[in-house]
# Entry
Amino acid sequence: MKAIHVPEIAGAYLFEPTPYADERGFFCRTFDADLVRSVGLDPDAFVQDSLSRSVRGVLRGLHLRSGAGEAKLVRCSYGRIFDVVVDLRADSPTYLGRAFFELSGETQVTLYIPAGCAHGFQALTGTADTSYRIDRPHDPSEDVTIAFDDPELAIPWPLPVTSMSRRDREAPSLAEVLKQREK
# Structure
């Protein structure tokens, strides 16, 4: 397993495992505390694991947390997703930077997203299971959502959106969210 820095988002990493495949399928390590520690992250900081299942075209996001934010490890454990990270940390050298990834169950690559970044994804396959490891308990009162189709972000979603939550569909623009955060 190796860690790869994501240049578009300061502090973001891809953790790329080494799958061992044979006639039975494959085996790979999807989390390694020593490797996480080697890039300056605390592996013990993660307190909650979650899983979402989506069907082709479903879009989730763009989400982030107010207050102290929320760092997370994201991995597509089955299927494929188009994953998006937007740096919304005003003091970051990559402020407003965007990064796009295809995560898949075949590669089992894990993406580390620093606190203060927005995140979203779209399912590219009939079924896509996405695992999250989050560094603090979820508090719905801190949920922030940004419009997935904000022209300022110009995210190249690969498929037409087949379904999304009401909250995501009615999300404010990036400019509105940034203005609210300044208050």
In short: The mean pLDDT is 95.
